[in-house]
Amino acid sequence: MAEKRRAMIKIKPKKYKVGDIVKVDFIAIHPMDTGMQKDKKTGKIKPAHYINSITFSFDGKPFTTMKIWESVSRNPYFSVNYKVTGKGKITVDYTDNQSEKNSKSKKVKPKG
Amino acid sequence: MERRKFIQSMFATSAVVAMAVPSRLFAEEAKKKATPKGPNDMSFEEALKTITNGKGAKDSDKIKLTVPEIAENGAVVPVKVNVDHPMEEKNYVKAIHVLNKGNGNARCADIMLTPANAKGYFATRVKLSKTQEVVALVELSDGTFIQTAKSVKVTIGGCG
Amino acid sequence: MRKLLLPLALMVTLATAGEQFAMSDADRAMYKEMLENNPADIFVEEGGELFEKLGDEKALAKFLGVTEKELPKYIAGFPRYIKKLGNVVGLDQVLQAMQVEQGKKKTKLKSTEMFSMLAYVKSLANDEQIAIDIDADKYIKASYELGKKTFETPRGGRGLSCLSCHSADIVGQILRTQPLPDLGKAGSGATWPAYRMTKSSLRTLQRRFQGCMNNALMKVIPIGSKEMVGLEVYISTLAQKEKQPIAIPGLKR
User: Fold this and answer.
1) Which domains are delineated in chain B?
2) Chain C closest-CA separation from residue B17 CA (Å)
3) C133 domain-assigned
4) CB < 8 Å to B19, chain C
5) What is the pTM of this model?
6) Measured between alpha carbons, how far is C85 from C83 in angstroms, rounded to an integer?
7) What is the residue-averaged pLDDT of chain C?
8) Is residue B77 less than 8 Å (CB to CB) from chain A?
9) Protein fold of A7-108
10) Interface confidence (ipTM) of the complex
């Protein structure tokens, strides 16, 4: 079942120019369940449910892809660098092992 | 004896107990019982072989792996990798693989970078089931692999 | 006494032996960095959206009888006596009262929605100093006294009080691998609600008290009760004394 998941993209520093290398931080709200833990309330094993694939793109062109495993923390955080080439949009598309697809975007607005 | 003073004297006389206590509080003790196997389970050696196609990886000080010496908790352990290497069109850090040596699944994340990243950098937070080494395995665009490892002490203490 | 002796003996180590558990400065720096990318930021954002449904800062200021400009500093003075409600209350109870006033369904105090809303509203006072005036009226004074008393009273199977682990003489000693913090210097009152890493969720101060009580074998006191609000007042004044500015959401083990 597709559930609209929350996520956040931060670009640091907040002010940057074309040619600057910025840090792109991405946090997603996701259980990242390993499939080996019991639900405390029901006593049943929670099935594995974790983000397994992420693609960072700028204006539709991928610049980083990630294969993620269940060892990553819940509500995971990922950070990479990116060289600003101009005005546009960074999009992070992420899929999990239960085939849920989600996406988050952030505008890139260089000053000068 | 007034309760507060009693408790304080407890702290002073617990030296003998102090020797016995620490090991009990480290996660290894808890894991002595057989743990169930997960579908993605793979040892570090196997993962290294798979990722490097049997080539293995040389230790390199060009990789700066930042992890806490002591993780306050095993659920959220910060990991930062910085590779001192160019990120040019024909010469760049192609991939950063974050692995561990103690979880059932040695693999944490496989990051495929491109020159657009401009730096061989990646950071995330991982779950560590016990005190173990975290490994940064790096693939360069020329096909060579380098690696570095650091140990993280995981305590499962605290109240509440 | 024997009942007290055995569990404490098992749980406690000397401060010097505890050095093996102490986080280094480099480690602390790593955790401080994590504050910049706190998953709780997303929950706070969600709380903001829920708060918007109640009418935002405009409605809250109106309900409290202050101007929107005065709101951040006024928020920094919570929990406080609200005449309209006849009690010393926390921000969460104010939000619940607003829901009732607007004919909306009450959100439970102990719910993720309320924790998120509380975090958002308290974050409006970020960078402000906690501004609880325990002499402002007889109600806040009584709440503070009740909170302090609850903090100091031994309860439950182990005969422990909050003071057993959180007194000034015991600060720095190690309990279950964690150095016991000075609640004032740690700014607990100013940095909760916070993301708890071991729970991977946003938790409030009163919820944290409940976790602690559970572990200390004390009967858990309901969130929003006079005692819990009093405890929050008391703990907040400790941070106030140490001039810890409000910084929501926090990040905790």
Assistant:
1) 37-154 (2.60.40.2470)
2) 7
3) yes
4) 17
5) 0.87
6) 5
7) 91
8) yes
9) Immunoglobulin-like (2.60.40)
10) 0.95
